[in-house]
Design a protein that fits this description.
By secondary structure, the protein is mainly alpha-helical. It has one domain (about 5-30, about 45-350). It is about 75% helix and about 0% strand. The protein is built from 15 helices and two strands. The chain has helices spanning about 30-35, 40-70, 75-95, 105, 115-140, 140-150, 150-160, 170-185, 195-220, 225-250, 255-285, 285-295, 295-310, 315-330, 340-350, and strands spanning about 5, 20-25. α5 crosses α10 (about 225-250). About 40% of the residues are buried.
């Protein structure tokens, strides 16, 4: 059975990151035979594309599925039960990984890094998740998915303030994306609201801040460690804020379908999606994978039109097109590698 290196990078919705590792793929016996003969099977040839398509569908579906769940579960109660389970799952993974001979490496964090863990959890989980559920409650799935997809826009502004120098084409993309968002928000129809749209933009700002705060941590600690402790740091205030809604929720009235939706939102868009995503990155490259991710708002819009009869006026379509084009231009330049980020994290740690 062949073993393939997989590069796991930070994703759009959750910020979970896993370093370079090796995974064994089921069914690779046929792939090995095909590689030996120099003629891969048709299925093997298109597996990365199938994986990327699956990821897009999983991430796009979260907006429609969550919006539908709000008809039976209040947004804050939904956030409560989801992140209660996600925290348990994150530490379950840490326990499994921490059984190795390098146990201390997974569980121990430097005291000086505790404020950064807390800040990353606050922005990446507390504020982002509040913005996600409260914004989605007040706007359409398509509007929410597009505006939250503006994370790279705010990330670029933040890293520039911190001293990074993005290339000129990235600034062109930034301007196009901002123009697209302005045009998109000028469309008063389509099932969205100014309040929901602005809250969704606030969620994008929170997640962009999380990514910047989190950079030294992912360069310094195992991914399971960062995921578990940032999830815990963010989930504690999130659970406290959403506790009254959770207590008021009639959990006994929820059917099997509602609980399956909750489990779907805990497992599939987080762990399954990232496994497929990064496996495809190893075979098609970051540029193709991240460009494919730009179709998430498009697919979410199609699903929203099918299930919620969302309208798409000229301004909304034009604004969405410009925003996605701007994001594409921003992703064209070559950004720092994980190795450079790790070196930078070490310099920050040593006070340089």
């Amino acid at each position: 059975m062949a073993r393939h290196p997989v590069i796991l990078t930070q994703g759009t919705m959750t910020g979970w990151r896993v370093r370079r590792t090796e995974v064994a793929l089921a069914g690779d016996g046929r792939s090995d035979a095909a590689e030996a003969s120099g003629q891969p099977s048709p299925l093997t040839t298109f597996l990365p594309e199938i994986a990327l398509l699956t990821v897009v569908l999983l991430w796009a579906s979260t907006f429609v599925i969550t919006k539908d769940a709000f008809e039976r579960i209040s947004p804050l109660a939904f956030a409560f039960i989801r992140f209660l389970l996600i925290t348990v799952l994150a530490f379950g993974v840490l326990v499994v990984r921490g059984r190795s001979a390098q146990r201390a490496r997974y569980w121990r964090v430097e005291r000086a890094d505790l404020p950064r863990f807390a800040l990353a959890g606050l922005f990446g989980y507390t504020l982002y998740q509040l913005g996600f559920v409260l914004g989605l409650e007040r706007t359409s799935p398509f509007s929410s998915s597009l505006l939250i997809a503006m994370v790279p826009l705010f990330t670029m502004l933040l890293v520039t303030l911190l001293g990074d120098r993005p290339p000129p084409v990235a600034w062109v993309g930034l301007g196009v994306a901002i123009a697209g968002v302005v045009v998109f928000l000028s469309d008063r129809g389509g099932g969205g609201s100014w309040e929901g749209n602005l809250i969704s933009l606030g969620a994008a700002v929170a997640f962009a801040t999380y990514g910047v705060v989190n950079r030294p941590l992912v360069a310094r600690y195992p991914p399971e460690t960062v995921s578990a402790y940032t999830t815990l740091a963010g989930s504690v205030p999130l659970l406290l804020v959403s506790l009254p809604a959770a207590r008021a929720q009639d959990w006994g009235s929820l059917g099997v379908g509602s609980w399956l939706v909750i489990l779907y939102m805990v497992v599939l868009p987080v762990y399954v999606a990232y496994i497929l995503w990064n496996w495809a990155i190893a075979r098609r490259g970051v540029a193709i994978a991240t460009s494919t991710a730009l179709t998430v708002p498009v697919v979410s819009g199609v699903l929203s039109a099918i299930f919620y009869a969302e309208g798409f006026g000229t301004l909304k379509v034009l604004g969405a097109t410009l925003a996605l084009l701007g994001l594409l231009l921003m992703r064209l330049p070559r950004w720092p590698s994980l190795d450079s980020l790790r070196k930078r994290g070490n310099r920050v740690r040593s006070g340089v």
